[in-house]
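Section 5.1 Outputs to date
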Amino acid sequence: MHMIRAPTTGWHYSIEQDGTWKFYIREKTMQHLIDLALAREKLAEALDERNEHESMVRAWMDREYPGIEQNREKLCMAVKAAGIECKRLETDVRSAAIDLYTSTGNKKPYAGTGIRVRTKWLFDEGEAQRWCAENCKTLLKLDVKGYAKLAPSLDGAPGQSSEEPSATIAGDLSGWIATQDSTEN
């Protein structure tokens, strides 16, 4: 009998005197194969369980998804409508704040609101061009923005100062809400 070992597989084989081949496996290799078979069996069970859960979830989604989609659409429309209403209300609050500022001069007309006043120089471009040709040749090619900035400090420059109020609304209106609650009680 002649014994030969296959180096990496753990298998041995021998050629018997009658010329037949016999295969042997080492005990350690056999345990690995058994462990592998058990692991494959457990994996198959886990996959079956996962597939069962997946089919249950798919059935539920098929049954419930149209309602979920409808509710999502309604919610999106409500959020969009609320955003439009909020913008309209902000415009109304700003307008009311500017009206109150215009009549009283108070730059904090309501709690949570404020007024910024930007001064702007109003002028006729043709008249400003002629004035620059006579008095300030460096501005001959009229830079409208540059003229509007410099004109208030130039003697005799045509135009007039104009204030443009803009209202701001605080991000945190809890102070305003608190004053409203106290005046209602």
